[in-house]
What does this fold into?
Amino acid sequence: MKKTPIILASSSPRRREFLKQLGIDFGIIVPDVPEAVRHNESPRAYARRLAGEKADAVFARLASATVEGDLKEIDKNLARIIATDELLLLAADTIVVLGKRIMEKPVNDADARRMLRALSGRAHNVITGVCVLKVAKGAPVRERNFTVSTRVVFKKLSTAEINGYVATGEPKDKAGAYAIQGIGSFLVKSISGSYTNVVGLPVAELVDLLRKDFGFSVF
It folds into this structure.
């Protein structure tokens, strides 16, 4: 099977690390997509839509760079990937859902504390929407989208634990104001489903999709 290069449409260091661990050849282009829930949009539909919009935004930037020859902001590795006949765009969006409430990244420490108080002692779902877009000779030829949900249960948190955790700075860029792979592991009592999904990318499901739908084998 082929080892098609991938462009990761994300600034997430966690997603980047997963691809590195799998030995995948990839570059990064960070999309600029507004994150706002539409009226009556379900959490799954929202995460899936955002992933697709991120992939589309990166494709549009690629097409513009190719047409205009503007590679000033693109490093040599990324330029090499762009020059290939075929590549895959990988985009994802992870949200935390408590009941019907969507929790994304906190806007400040007070917002992080509010989120953690709400999650304390309760179960919530972490949903990641994923989009893989195949580009061949500068044109999109195939797109696949999916979502994965994991149930997470928090232990009951004291005010001191919440304040202390927020003071570490870890919650700042994390959906739901916590990182299960970091200091925030102490918050989690149990999970049901994909652990990597909670971190930010459902790796098992992604690897299966790449193999079945795109002929891409990690090993």
The longest strand covers residues 139-154. DSSP finds seven helices and seven strands in the chain. The chain has one domain: 6-214.
